[in-house]
Amino acid sequence: MIDIVAALESSFDEIHYLDFYREIFPEGSFEEKGVYEDGKYNGIAVAIEKGGKRTKRLTVTDDLDAIADMAASDDFCLMSPISYIGKSRKSSNARLMYALAIDLDGIEERQQWEFFMEQIDRGHEMLKFVWGLPRPTYLISSGTGIHIYYVFQQPIPMFKNIVEQLEKLKKRLTWQAWTQGASSLHEKVQYESLFQGFRVVGTITKDGGRCRAFRTGEKVTVEYLNRFVPEEYRAENFVYKSDLHLEEAKKKYPEWYQQRIVEKRSKSTWTCKKDLYDWWIRKILEGAEQGHRYWCIMTLATYAQKCGVPRETLEEDAYGLIPFMNTRGDEFTEDDVLHALEAYTESYITYPIDTIVVRTGIAIEKNKRNGRKQVVHLERARAVQNIDYPNGEWRNKDGRPDKSQIVVDWRMAHPNGTKAECIRETGLSKPTVYSWWKKIDWVELRSSMNRKNMVQLSGADQQQAAQKVVAIVERIAKEKGISEEEAYKMFLKGEY
Q: Rounded to two decimals, what is the model's pTM?
């Protein structure tokens, strides 16, 4: 096992935690303590008492005293590199983003660390065979992994259209960091939102040490980050797209204005039966995995809010899942649960299903039955099928497997066989056999890329394997007209 702290110490200069936050939040970024009329915003941190369930929000003012207080405690402390208006960390209160941060776990062996260093050292040049990474401003030892910080030269306003672009950019950079050979957990990429809180530098980690910051580069621009991702993931349109001025909205939508602005009513949403909440608990027990457990509990909190489940019931169920979660990876603690339960608010009720699927790693099949029960839906589908295909033409004749499976089965039975022998013995055409011949090679490659086997490869072999995967993923994406993230998931599941 590699000692990440020692590796960082041998390569980079350590920066005191107060200097780290001062560079992220330059003097004058926040309000002065006790001065609340100058129109500036503040940082918001969350502190959770060690071993306990009590949490408190801390306002970070321009003196950064709150950060020093957190570093002097043994509490579990989180903070995002974002300024907020008011006292709540909800996304609608976010105003300026000072840095983009990515969590990276699974660096376990020396060759993985060296490969990660090569990614950020060679950067854009690495795109010749794998997707490289922009050079970070800081690397943070987080206890179980590293946090990658890209500190912006100028803070970025958190308008909705800008947030959507940056979310897409961050997701892509996260995918590149986790899947190109540096992490043993490349099959379980942990995606996080822009608003995710990270352990406060200087505070305690899970292993009892302290979060430490190491300077690795300079401040960056979004334009610089864009160079390292495909065009469709770049954040390029930063013009604020205002819909209506408030006075115009008052005239055009008087009912909305009265309810939302004057009466300050919550945004209306539909409620669900508790069945949805219970169903999600079952989904967690069936499919929760390391790297996604926090999001599973967070989603449970959103469903509890949506279904009208009391907080007491939610807490009992969420904390009760800890023993199970600890069977799915490294230690999952009460602190993890407590932080996830912050999603038990109205602002998370409309969390998109597609986002839930990505972050929890749990597939959710969308209901396309127009409210009909499954048995009725299937009867209707079969009836339509029989009308369209009265002779059963939709079936594979004689119930035989498709041609791709015939090729795979033959290669499994004849590991040293040739394409010509396969054509002769199966009776399939040459184009068919050639088209599907590499499928079994991809199966073997997927096997070599799992956590157990990946760490046994040399650095050069890891690079070669990553190069092959990138080529396959690009091919699948091009043929299917889908994103590379979707193609990578198809590759891992063998669905191509």
A: 0.59
